[in-house]
Amino acid sequence: MKKRVLSLALLMLIGHAATAQKVEFEEFDLDNGLHVILHQDNTAPVVITSVMYDVGGKDFGGKSETGLRTGFAHFFEHLLFEGSENIERGEFMKIIPANGGTFNANTSQDRTYYYEIFPSNKLELGLWLESERMLHPVIDQVGVDTQNEVVKEEKRQRYDSPYGRILEVIGENLFENHPYKHPNIGYMKDLDASTLEEFNAYFDKYYGPNNAVLIVAGDIDTEKTKDMIRDYFSEVKSRPDFVRNFPKETPITETKKVTAYDPNIQIPAIIAAYRLPGQATRDAYVLDMISTYLSGGKSSVLYKKIVDEQKQALQVAAVNLGQVDHNIFALFALPQGDVSLDDLLGEMDEEIAKMQTDLISERDYQKLMNQFENQFVNSNSSVAGIASSLATYYLLYGDVNLINTQLDLYRSITREEIRDVAKKYLSPNQRVEIQYLPKKDEK
Question: Are residues 295 and 207 in the same domain?
């Protein structure tokens, strides 16, 4: 499967809602707890069926007696393509292209998302495939062994590539207790030690209809689609409810300095990471604007100053990674020539200090608004984008209508609020500073 990789550069791009036409949708629940959201758009003969499960990298497998296991949600992203009682092994990924469709899946620390895009006359096929995945997938030792090797190869390609461990290093140093401290892909030793019984128990706990949302968007007849959904998903039994009770983090009050090594790089990097409120809070929205102001494009203050004018860095970024429980705000830079990492961090801190005392200009404020409007329009310019937004706003934000109102929230943020939030969260004593260095040859 093609993966969606969260690199620091890509994390700067925030998908937001817009001045575009209002997105109409309809919601209902099946008796088994499956939440369904429908969006009808008959302008093109295309339909997407997608399911987002409320399970991600933060949810461990295994059990306390034998050891908790990381990486289970990501592993299941692959495992649930193996087949079902009615789909032979390996056929899942053949059926879709054979019927003119495309598909993908991705996992974050907070959720897992599967989708298929078909010609609209194949809607019933998409619903059948997702119901098979939810109702009775085949989880056996052959599939586990096969996907274990697939995950290891993905780790080699993605995480063992240059700078591929940056998010892992940030997580393990920014969090002391919360499971966000572990990489989404997990540790290979955990997957190797896991049993078939543990995988089946994980599926039974997290992949029930009452822990998921089904989105159908595109060229549909709403009433006929409801009937098909009931036909294919009503048979799936709900699962017992569970409560997450993650350990709390204590605030960072003193700068933590860390050195990390990457044998796959030649140019060092400097990172400053902050642990912040979760993505649904108002302050997180303000921090989105701050990160975009600092490094959203080549005319942003950090790029223009440090890369373009002073030529001190090859790359610079300020990112606000949205997560349910805690966002990660990170500054990142690669030095040019002999420029020291400390000097680079000092230059970035200088621009943040300005934000903490002075209001950004009216011109820069309007530019920010234009950027967010453009991003909002782009994020919902296709049925695939709309489906993803509907699922995300329902499951991770608790408000589906954010697809229509989120831009108004950004527009309500003032220049004074930007200054105050920068001052509240982005001081050096509230962060982890990481020197990310090439690993020296061991003699």
Answer: no
